[in-house]
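Handout for the seminar on molecular recognition.
Each group receives one record of this type.
Step one: identify the two inputs.
Step two: read the structure output and locate the region that could contact flavin-adenine dinucleotide.
Step three: write two sentences on what you found, then compare them with the reference statements printed after the record.
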Amino acid sequence: MASNTERDILIIGGGMAGGLLAGALIGSGWRVTLLDAATTPIMPDGLGRPRVSALTEASQQMLARTGAWAMLPPARVQPYQDMQVWDGDGTGEVHFNAAEVGAEALGWIVENDAVVAAQYQAVTAAGDVQWLTGAPVQNIRREQDLWQVMLADGRVFSAPMLVGADGARSGVRDTLGIPGAHQDTGHVAIVGTVQMALPHDGCARQRFIHTGPLALLPLFGDGHQCSIVWSVWAAEAERLMALGEDAFNEALTQASQGCRGALRMLGPRAAFPIRELHASDYVRDGAALIGDAAHVVHPLAGQGINLGMLDAAVLAEEFTRARERGLPFYHPAALARYQRRRRGHNALMLNALRGFKVLFEQPSLEVRLLRNVGMNLVNRAAPVKRLLAQQALGRSGDMPALARR
Ligand SMILES: Cc1cc2nc3c(=O)[nH]c(=O)nc-3n(C[C@H](O)[C@H](O)[C@H](O)COP(=O)(O)OP(=O)(O)OC[C@H]3O[C@@H](n4cnc5c(N)ncnc54)[C@H](O)[C@@H]3O)c2cc1C
């Protein structure tokens, strides 16, 4: 019989959401183990990786407070002070600037692998939270009031609190019997690293096209590189992915309306079908879901992991709050508060993004006209613009202390 390691909290999944929770629990006094199937995260070097995230100020704060931001090589982090969003089928345009809202930057573009490697370094350097890699969870079951987690190699861990941070295809969500059906958006995101003839000038650009948005996210390097997220219908994605290098570069340059001159792919392109998901519940019987295990949103506003890291920070905050009130940290009331604080907020974002997608898909002249007039009005209305910029910074809603400035 394999030995059973007793812990207080087991986190399944060491992506950015699980990594943030592990960081937030450093020094908490609870015995925490994070289990991840992947190999030990290492800091990327060389050319930018194709998977990047636009992190909000709130996410940057959380990473700084958990020690991970200091582990990121500054040369691999690209802040952006400007954001330009325009309608490819008209003249509507909105331009945001960090100075208008008294911010240092509107956001930061960082490779996902770099964030996880930095989180891993911060957690392992602190020493009290255990982060095990190469540890695929094979089986989870509830024994009286404890969760028992079995790894593929036969090791067993048990704890009263289980956190599912295991991504969109969450096995923890399935074990808990929480419905979270995937909904196909019809879109596929093509991602990759691109060389641009003109510099990015620290500006994140997004062109809305009726077939889907194209984002040009400024990357570290010589100031001429960016990461693209080009969302298109599945059939169009298939056509684009089959194109030779020159033809693809030409199609991409055209889609960007030549805003940065000629664009050229620097590495391979990858395609991800975009599915949405929202778990009907985030908590059950001493267990909670965070990050993509709980919700998957369209990447058109770059919000996915920003929401996931807020989940992690709020959950850690509710554990502490319960303890301060003399309750077990995994008390049902603490978990219910976590769900209340996060599920509504995430549902709002999911619905807003769905609305945006539909609005920009409309080919009718009337809708296009309204859209363009609306965008230009927003661009001239300073208070509305400030409000939207505050949202983009992640400064809105019920923020955990870890995310506040
Ligand atoms: C094209 C694209 C662009 C995006 N751009 C942005 C952006 O700009 N900004 C933004 O905020 N978000 C963005 N997102 C969303 C963001 O990438 C996701 O929200 C985020 O990566 C999810 O992180 P996570 O930690 O919840 O899950 P994941 O990153 O999926 O991590 C899950 C972890 O669980 C582990 N795991 C799974 N099963 C097991 C098991 N049985 N045993 C042990 N470990 C297990 C895996 O190894 C993995 O490490 C984008 C998404 C896409 C598709």
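Reference statements: The two ends are 50 Å apart (CA to CA). The chain has ten helices and 22 strands.
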